[in-house]
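Hi support team,

I submitted a single chain yesterday and got back a structure, but I'm not sure I'm reading the token output correctly. Could someone confirm the output below corresponds to the sequence I sent? I've pasted both exactly as they appear in my results page.

Thanks,
R.
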Amino acid sequence: MNDHLRNEIYLYLDSNLITQEIPPEEMVSSLASIFELSGFDAMMVYADWTFNLIPKEDDELMKLEEELDKESLDWEKRDSENE
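Hi R., thanks for writing in. Yes, this is the structure output for that exact sequence:
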């Protein structure tokens, strides 16, 4: 599978993540049909996309947690200064 096709499928999957038109349990067969892939290739590209999706969400969650921790420390500092 070439990079152009893989990127096109990833964009399709990203879009479906938002619209949720196709449920996850039907995605592999849908990819195979839409992009004329074998079932194995559809499963592999979906697995790769899913694997790559998780770290992105974890990174965003970690950034949010860091921001909240910093904000919490700022509030604690202000509270101690006001005592």
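A quick pointer for reading it: The two ends are 64 Å apart (CA to CA). Let us know if anything else looks off.

Best,
Support desk
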